[in-house]
Amino acid sequence: MHSITPHPRPRWRTAALCGSLAATLTALDARAQDANPRTDASATPSLSEVTVTGNPLGAAQTVAPSSTLTGENLLLQRAATLGDTLQEQPGVASSYFGPNAGRPVIRGLDGDRVRILQNSGASIDASSLSYDHNTPIDPLTIERVEVLRGPAALLYGGSAQGGVVNVIDNRIPREPVAGPEGGVTGRADASYASGARASSGAALIEGGNDRYALHVDAFSRDAGDTAVPITLGCARPGSPESARRICNSANRAWGGAVGGTAFFDRGYLGASLAGYRSDYGTVAEDDVSIGMRSTRAALEGLWRLPGGLIESVKGQFSHGDYQHTEFEGDAVGTVFKNRGSEGRIEAKHRAFGRLTGVWGLQWEGTRFSALGEEAFLPPSRTRALALFAHEELGTDWGKLTFGARVEQVRVRTEGALDAAGEPRFAAGSRRFTPGSAALGALVHAGGGWQLSGNLAYTQRAPKDYELFADGPHVATAAWELGNPALGLERSTSVDVGAQWKDGAHRFAVTAFASRYGNYIGLLPTGRTVDELPEYAYTGVKARFAGLEASGTVRLLGRQGLWRSAADASVLDLDLRADTVRATNTNTSTGTGQPLPLIAPARVGATLRWANGPWGARLGFDHAMAQHRVPEGSRATAGYTLWNASLTWRQKLGHAQLQWYARVDNLGNRLAYSATSILTQTVFPNAPLPGRSVRVGVQATF
């Protein structure tokens, strides 16, 4: 089999990591028994269940639509990419560039309109530039993921019009690990998936006391080509000419991090250093692979100032060094680099009556370059400085929230020469001053009901590639052309929602709509350049509207529709649905034309049963056919994917083992994603994965 990258493989493999898990548990079990007195089988080391991105003041109730994926749900839904991990969340899809690259798509918006955060700090990478660029975040190391939908996420970036995905990994501990006397906690995971013959393992250890905390983690993943229900051709050297697998979809990833925090009477100061490496096939071309390298350093601190106008000050700083090399066979093709830093200071003021709030300053600077024959944009520098505020006013009936953000953004390029020394890209510079504001309300309607609403006006500065691109882009199979004259992207958005909860029963529904005065889309021009269709970044009027719903009904057990013997068994039914309709309303480009790569309407359900240490799930997700596509684009058929899982908890001293098995695409159904560019450019070579059985064990202590 042809190697997916000329870089040497790591000396330690997944098998070695998995084999060390038992030794790690044994070595630390004696200390864990003395230092960690938790004996409840359901107790696991975890952070407080607060949606950080949804409410910077730390309140549990958020006005903006939000959700959290953690615990057993995260364990069973975890995939190789962040987008695939979250795609069962209402309103969230995956851009799916094969099994190795996929960013979250929220309410039909992707790329830079969805902000990816690590512990509320920026993730410096190039994943928003191209569909084949994965985020340097592996779900193996995640403790929980928070999803904040809609433009109310403007506190975390003016470009976050679709929402925010915040990945929490606790690499900088924000609270003591195990009480004043200290102790050690940890987690280890090992699994194997049949569909891609994928073995993976991860381990983390945290220790300390009320004065300090240390964190160490490592992970490894090794997967072959992904199995699918049909036979596909493959021109990769050393591979079969045809097989029931996606050609060039193998992947190897490994990395880890160290971090630590010192706690003081009035706060804490912590730092971390993380590395991520991944070598994977691009799927779009049989003999092109990618070597990704990312290093991220972060610093975070909190200082409380009781008695004054300012209650506390929180600071964050991170620096990322990202490199993404595309190999054509064994030869280096194009090298993408993105180096940058982000800083953020938040000041929480004391309460004025029922009014509380946070004021802040954020700055970010990146230096991007793409070097090689297929580079489609010049080296560039982006600098941004922003002021933001978030205020909450408590009332007898609920609360009101106010948010505002103003930025100064400069995007500059010095141009570039081609191999012959001739001008390849022109120099240019643009300055923007986007401003955004949001207003929200939460009403306690009684009877377990809450009503919420958000109104937001947002502006986004164009990105470097939207301004200066001019060249062939392999991932989109098109010649992409930027427009240096683009103005601010502007939108007005509203969402209204209702939530109800009664014991185990719950229900939530949100309707949303956005109107764009200048939506920057990549649209065909009708011309051809070097035998490639030309697509230009163009500002158009657009409209997005949709609905998200989710709920849980307890069928058996306490507060259920039926009672089991001694309430030993619990049976819940989870329901979910979403739909979004995105339309180009620009009169000059064809009013009523659908925007590309929009997810179809989806419905899903999961039946969850639990009895003591045992648990089982059976569920499905159905995607309707997507016929609302731009003229000349491929429609996608509807499909239903079933999944099933079985879990069992086991005590081992003071450690808890969670054994699990999950079957995805139980019926081995052939399906294609409407949100994947590959469905348009390389059809039928990139279907969704076929049947796969994943078995594993997770240990916590």
Automatic annotation (TrEMBL):
<feature type="domain" description="TonB-dependent receptor plug">
    <location>
        <begin position="62"/>
        <end position="164"/>
    </location>
</feature>
<keyword id="KW-1134">Transmembrane beta strand</keyword>
<keyword id="KW-0813">Transport</keyword>
<keyword id="KW-0472">Membrane</keyword>
<feature type="domain" description="TonB-dependent receptor-like beta-barrel">
    <location>
        <begin position="257"/>
        <end position="666"/>
    </location>
</feature>
<dbReference type="InterPro" id="IPR000531">
    <property type="entry name" value="Beta-barrel_TonB"/>
</dbReference>
<keyword id="KW-0798">TonB box</keyword>
<dbReference type="Pfam" id="PF00593">
    <property type="entry name" value="TonB_dep_Rec_b-barrel"/>
</dbReference>
<keyword id="KW-0675">Receptor</keyword>
<feature type="signal peptide">
    <location>
        <begin position="1"/>
        <end position="32"/>
    </location>
</feature>
<protein>
    <submittedName>
        <fullName>TonB-dependent receptor</fullName>
    </submittedName>
</protein>
<keyword id="KW-0812">Transmembrane</keyword>
<dbReference type="InterPro" id="IPR036942">
    <property type="entry name" value="Beta-barrel_TonB_sf"/>
</dbReference>
<keyword id="KW-0732">Signal</keyword>
<dbReference type="InterPro" id="IPR039426">
    <property type="entry name" value="TonB-dep_rcpt-like"/>
</dbReference>
<dbReference type="Pfam" id="PF07715">
    <property type="entry name" value="Plug"/>
</dbReference>
<comment type="similarity">
    <text>Belongs to the TonB-dependent receptor family.</text>
</comment>
<keyword id="KW-0998">Cell outer membrane</keyword>
<dbReference type="InterPro" id="IPR012910">
    <property type="entry name" value="Plug_dom"/>
</dbReference>
<dbReference type="InterPro" id="IPR037066">
    <property type="entry name" value="Plug_dom_sf"/>
</dbReference>
